[in-house]
């Protein structure tokens, strides 16, 4: 067995050094322990996957969710002189060749590994295998934002090669997701090591702003930032939006699940090699993308979860250089996410008349009263002043100057609101529900004021 540092310098170069928890995680695996690593995107998870089997002189099996990602990783290893292959729909070696000792690292899709024939081959080759590694391990958990059925069954492999250490790595995993990963992979035992790194990405400049009303203005802004900053990923919420914005952004390539696999592969390759520096994509493009110099990530629409946004924004600046992430949101995003949830649960989300949410009549009346006060305040101000002024009016506090006091008196005709009302959350709900939108009042100062949408005006009249 060679030292991990010797392998690092031989294949990656004498200037390379381990960072953060890399060395300790690799050491734990080489000593036969199971390891869970939660490491920020760009933190160097690949080395933890690849070095232990090379140092031990055994085969490393790496499970990954994306064919394009595996192809990139395999090619990268081959370029370094490391014997690697891919098993799956685009496999480069036969199953028997992959496990006969002629390869150091074998990448495979979860579906391929879980076939009964492959499981039996793993059992037969168990003495040659030094590591089973699961990349993007949050896909194992149903609580994760990218759950995949085959990933959830990967624990079955351990019954065929029980003595082989297991590594699970991910960039995003809540406490609940981490526990689920460990449970499903049978990693809850005394020989388990868990390493978590700081999730902060200090080189990323994050911002969120209302989506411009005109898509042409939005596209002009994106193209300008892309030209100024460099390689850019534009994330959208649906495949239809991906096709639309691809057509609106000259020179871009497109990537989403409904495209032909060859088209997706061509788009990925064009972006990775900088033939195109602008990629429009859905969530289908994300996990483990090996392009460290992405300088701008733009989200048109709000991702369904915070974890999903962390993954997408995390594509930027993986080389440590300053990069920018902008999220353009709109009230209609909530309706889009609701439709995703409805589809997931195979039907419309309707009033069941049984749970506390659907039977909370008195609380609903109070909430409607609060909504009406804030909607009235926003409408009274005529879309000329910020949300803080609208909340001031709605809360019933005295206002100055005199003209604002007059507006205050109009709003006080509405039913009073509870003293402990969280007005900021109410405002966020009204915007997210598409009842209120922001309109640019002063472009030079980037000042936008809230106003009622047609739907919001109808809602106000109905309350």
UniProtKB/TrEMBL annotation:
InterPro entries: DEAD/DEAH_box_helicase_dom, DNA_helicase_ATP-dep_RecQ, Helicase_ATP-bd, Helicase_C-like, P-loop_NTPase, WH-like_DNA-bd_sf. Gene3D superfamilies: P-loop containing nucleotide triphosphate hydrolases, Winged helix-like DNA-binding domain superfamily/Winged helix DNA-binding domain. Keywords: ATP-binding, Helicase, Hydrolase, Nucleotide-binding. It is an enzyme of class 5 (isomerase). This is DNA 3'-5' helicase. Residues 26-191 form the Helicase ATP-binding domain. PROSITE patterns: HELICASE_ATP_BIND_1, HELICASE_CTER. GO terms for biological process: double-strand break repair via homologous recombination. It comes from Chlamydomonas eustigma. One of its GO terms (cellular component) is chromosome. Belongs to the helicase family. RecQ subfamily. It catalyses: Couples ATP hydrolysis with the unwinding of duplex DNA by translocating in the 3'-5' direction. Its EC number is 5.6.2.4. NCBIfam families: recQ_fam (TIGR00614). Residues 221-368 form the Helicase C-terminal domain. GO terms for molecular function: 3'-5' DNA helicase activity; ATP binding; four-way junction helicase activity; hydrolase activity; nucleic acid binding.
């Amino acid at each position: 067995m060679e030292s991990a540092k010797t392998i690092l310098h031989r294949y990656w170069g004498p200037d390379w050094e381990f960072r953060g928890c890399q060395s300790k995680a690799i050491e734990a695996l080489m000593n036969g322990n199971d390891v869970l690593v939660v490491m920020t995107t760009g933190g160097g998870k690949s080395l933890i996957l690849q070095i232990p089997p090379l140092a031990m002189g055994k085969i490393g099996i790496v499970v990954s969710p994306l064919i394009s990602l595996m192809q990139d990783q395999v090619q990268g290893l081959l370029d370094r002189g490391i014997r690697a292959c891919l098993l799956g729909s685009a496999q480069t070696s036969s199953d028997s060749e992959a496990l006969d000792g002629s390869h150091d690292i074998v990448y495979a899709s979860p579906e391929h590994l879980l076939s009964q024939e492959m499981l039996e081959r793993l059992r037969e080759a168990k003495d040659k295998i030094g590591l089973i590694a699961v990349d993007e391990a949050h896909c194992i958990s149903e609580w994760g934002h990218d759950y995949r059925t085959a990933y959830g069954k990967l624990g079955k492999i351990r019954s065929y090669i029980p003595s082989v250490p297991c590594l699970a790595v991910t960039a995003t995993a809540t406490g609940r997701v981490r526990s689920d990963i460990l449970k499903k992979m049978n990693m809850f035992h005394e020989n388990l090591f868990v390493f978590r790194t700081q999730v902060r990405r200090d080189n990323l400049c994050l911002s969120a702003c209302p989506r411009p009303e005109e898509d042409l203005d939005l596209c002009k802004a994106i193209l300008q930032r892309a030209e100024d900053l460099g390689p850019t990923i534009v994330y959208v919420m649906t495949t239809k939006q991906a096709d639309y914005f691809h057509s609106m952004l000259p020179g871009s390539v497109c990537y989403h699940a409904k495209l032909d696999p060859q088209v997706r592969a061509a788009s990925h390759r064009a972006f990775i090699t900088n033939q195109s520096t602008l990629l429009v994509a859905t969530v289908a493009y994300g996990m483990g993308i090996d392009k460290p110099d992405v300088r701008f990530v733009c989200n048109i629409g709000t991702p369904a979860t915070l974890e999903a946004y962390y993954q997408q924004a995390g594509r930027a600046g993986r080389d440590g250089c300053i990069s920018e992430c902008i999220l353009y949101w709109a009230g209609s995003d909530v309706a889009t996410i609701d439709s995703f949830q409805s589809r997931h649960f195979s039907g419309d989300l309707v009033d069941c008349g049984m749970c506390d949410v659907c039977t909370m009549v008195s609380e609903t009346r109070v909430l409607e009263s609060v909504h009406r006060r804030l909607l009235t305040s926003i409408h009274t101000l005529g879309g000329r002043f910020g949300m803080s002024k609208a909340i001031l009016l709605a809360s019933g506090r005295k206002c100055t100057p005199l003209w604002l006091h007059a507006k205050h008196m109009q709003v006080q005709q509405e039913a009073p609101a509870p003293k402990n009302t969280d007005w900021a959350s109410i405002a966020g709900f009204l915007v997210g529900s598409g009842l209120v939108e922001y309109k640019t009042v002063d472009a030079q100062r980037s000042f936008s004021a809230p106003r009622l949408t047609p739907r919001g005006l109808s809602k106000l009249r109905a309350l």
